[in-house]
Amino acid sequence: MNDLVIMKDKQAVTSSLQVAETFGKQHKNVVQAIENKISTAENSALLENMFVEGKYTASNGKSNPMYYMNRDGFAFIVMGFTGHKADGFKLQYIKAFNEMEDQVKSHASELSPELQFMQGVVDKLASNERNQHRLENKIDGVSEIVATSTMDWRNETSHLISKIARQQGNTGESYKMTRNDIYDEVDRRGGVSLKTRLTNLRRRMAEEGTSKTQRKNTTKVDVIAHDKKLIEIYTAIVKEFAIRYQVWNEEY
After folding, report:
1. Element (H, E) at 62
2. How many CA atoms lie within 13 A of 87 on its CB side?
3. According to a count of CB atoms within 10 Å of the terminal CB, is the N or C end of the chain lower?
4. What is the dihedral angle through the alpha carbons of 51, 55, 58, 64, rounded to the nearest 10 degrees?
5. Number of neighbouring beta carbons within 10 Å of residue 164
6. pLDDT, tens digit, for every residue of 151-168?
């Protein structure tokens, strides 16, 4: 692991040769991957300080191109490698640096340039993994919300509203506020007054002999249930609120 990092011009770097050996890749393919990144117009300005071209002498005596890269360049290239060997290396790398961090904390000493390089790479790898996890979680969350249909709209929207309320404090007041905000938006988009319709519904129920308790427990959702158009509007609004408040983050 320590052979991965060398000192060059007072900076901790690694080389395309070392990367190729570590990941079991042909050196020419590693060089090509670096050159493809550098040659991209939008990347060139950002990458110019990450890679420096060099030369090495092959076993046949021929001088061939290679690249030195700092920790940013190394992390940039490594994240593009896949496969069991790459994953195994990353896991070993993270484990090794976790052990180094524990050692540093216990001895309260500064890291050498080589270890600083390794620390930076691990931090970047870990950060990329966390960002990837958040992205995947967001995609899954949005997909689940979008898939909410009008087939079982009462249960599914109620589930989403509970998540929204938890994002806003997880109190009775936050739940009530969420419901009211959604109802107000239904009024606006549907050109209706759910409050008036609820009053009328309860009046009809009383005329039909429905018990006072049952009338009291009747809500604006029951009003919406009587109108197919309002069901569609209500379901769409709940979805929008769920995405706005990023309910997929509530477990993370």
Report:
1. none
2. 4
3. C
4. 80
5. 24
6. 678 888 888 888 888 877
Q: How far is CA 226 from CA 26, 117, 159, in A?
A: 67, 65, 20
CA–CA dist 37, 35 (Å, integer): 5
Radius of gyration of the chain (CA): 30
Encode 30-44: b = buried (16+ Cβ within 10 Å), e = exposed: bbebbeebbeeeeee
| Residue labelled with tokens 């030195």 | 68
Helices 228-244 and 172-190, axial angle in degrees (round to 10)? 130
CA angle 35, 125, 79 (to 5 degrees): 30
Query: Nearest 5°: CA angle at 90, between 86 and 93?
Result: 135
Share above pLDDT 70 across residues of the chain, in percent, rounded to a whole number: 64
Whole-prediction pTM: 0.45
Answer for the pair 220, 183: CB distance below 8 angstroms, yes or no.
yes
Distance, in Å, from the CA atom of 3 to the CA atom of 77, rounded to the nearest integer, reads 18
29-41 confidence digits (pLDDT tens): 899 988 888 877 5
Dig out the tokens for 231 from the structure. 């069901």
Q: CA dihedral defined by 12, 50, 85, 64, rounded to 10 degrees?
A: -90
Structure tokens at 179: 């419901």
Q: Which two tokens stand for residue 50?
A: 């990450």
Greater confidence, 39 or 82? 39
Cite the beta strand spans of the chain per DSSP E. Answer: 6-8, 11-15, 51-57, 63-69
User: Which residues are registered as beta bridge partners of 14?
Assistant: 69
